[in-house]
Design brief:
The chain contains eight helices and 14 strands. The protein is an alpha+beta fold. The strands form two sheets. Strands 4, 5, 6, 7, 8, 9, 10, 11, 12, 13 and 14 form an eleven-stranded mixed β-sheet that branches. A three-stranded antiparallel β-sheet has the order 1-3-2.
Length: about 325
Amino acid sequence: MQEIIIKKNEAGQRFDKFLFKYFKEAGSGFIFKMLRKKNIVLNDKKASGKEILELDDKVKIYMKDETIDKFKGETGFNVTSSDIDVVYEDENVIIVNKPAGVLSQKAVDTDVSINEMIISYLIKTGSLTQDDLQTFKPSICNRLDRNTSGLVVAGKSLKGLQAMSKVIKERTVDKYYLTVVDGILDEGMELNGYLLKDEKTNKVSISETDNGGDRIETSFEPIDFGEGVTILEVKLITGKTHQIRAHLASIGHPIIGDRKYGNEKTNKKYPKIKNQLLHAWILKFNDLPDGFEKLSGKRIMADYPNDFNQFMDDVEDF
């Protein structure tokens, strides 16, 4: 027999959803059979699986240890490097400064992403155990392109994951980026248009008129300029794939170092720049749900990446 005490990251979900995660190698038929036969009980009572779990509920599993292990499957997490730049952390949320060149989430099992690096960090610092990962896995709530650096938000707890995913989806978090573009822009501007993504090429096109894509809004203010380039603070009003990169390129001011939407001739002038100069710089959290008072109203800023410092050192006018 095995007993599980429900923790905060497991409470609030349906019992059957919890069991599907716990016995990830078992089919739903097996799990419901075990519930019917009372081989799995909740608080010493027969359960249907529709119950909503509460903190400190007791789940008892009347099976042989080898059977439990078989249906749980592999539970270990390969701890990778936890050398990450943590900008903010509390009991529910962690915000890190992702380097350019690192994936937000892995595409294949062999990838290492900022998501795995965050989990490794939480395990090494004692905020998370390997056993916790059986039923809850911390996850990022916003994604950046591989070659874009900057702020990534993750939920350390189920409560944090749900709340941050909701406010990001509802756009109640103000997002500001720092970028360097080709050409001189000496006044702010708000751009509107329609973005259409080609799934085959993973490239988007921008149109001022409705092309069947998503409506997008991007605004920017110049911070400084020199030698034919401009540093911009960009506010992301909507958030679509490659929005900033494609929107700026569509008005003739592509981002320096952008190999997909940039100007090849301009990029050749700066051979040291290996990634697009686009940095998720500031997140401003407005009104957040109860329980997130530590983060509500805060303005979180990420340090410039090395590419930006290198570029500004090389361009004499800055």
